[in-house]
Amino acid sequence: MHIHRAERLWLIFGVSMLAVFIAVITTAAVVDGFVPPSHVQSIDPTKVSQTPPFDHPGLRRVGPGAYEAYYVARIFAFTPATITIPRNAHVTFFVTSADVEHGFSIPETGVNSAVTPGWVSEVSHTFTTRGTFLLICNEYCGSGHQLMAAKVIVE
Ligand code: CUA
């Protein structure tokens, strides 16, 4: 009788702790749900070329003077290699890697982001001056690192 009672108490204790545990997990999940997703989205780096919008990298006009540019970085190039935008265009760059860690930098601007496989980096800039801007990889990524570059042409 005493053993049964002790077992029952342990059972009640165990179920209570489980309930507390589930409540904590659920609360954490709900609280997480209210946090706006950060600008970093995850992506399967082995499926970049099949994952929209990175299956069609390039420039999209999303409003008057507003653009989104989707880039894929892979050893040792960026796709697209060149984009052409009008002066005063506000461009949001979304960049992901199909292989290793890269960088995404337009040295004449404030654009500078790491590009990590599995994640989408986001960085924006308004191009107020005409010209051809070099976009470079500024994270050592292998033997062709120095050649890894693209162009942003502002007309
Ligand atoms: Cu890519 Cu250095």
Structural overview:
This protein is of the alpha+beta class. It folds into 2 domains: 1-35; 45-154, Cupredoxins -  blue copper proteins (Immunoglobulin-like, Sandwich). It has one helix spanning 2-34, and strands at residues 41-42, 58-63, 66-74, 77-79, 82-85, 89-97, 102-105, 112-115, 119-127, 131-136, 149-154. The strands form 3 sheets. Strands 1, 2, 3, 4, 6 and 9 form a 6-stranded mixed beta sheet that branches. It is elongated, with a radius of gyration of 24 Å. Bound molecules: dinuclear copper ion.
Can you summarize this structure?
The protein is of the alpha+beta class. The protein folds into two domains: 35 residues; 110 residues, Sandwich (Immunoglobulin-like).
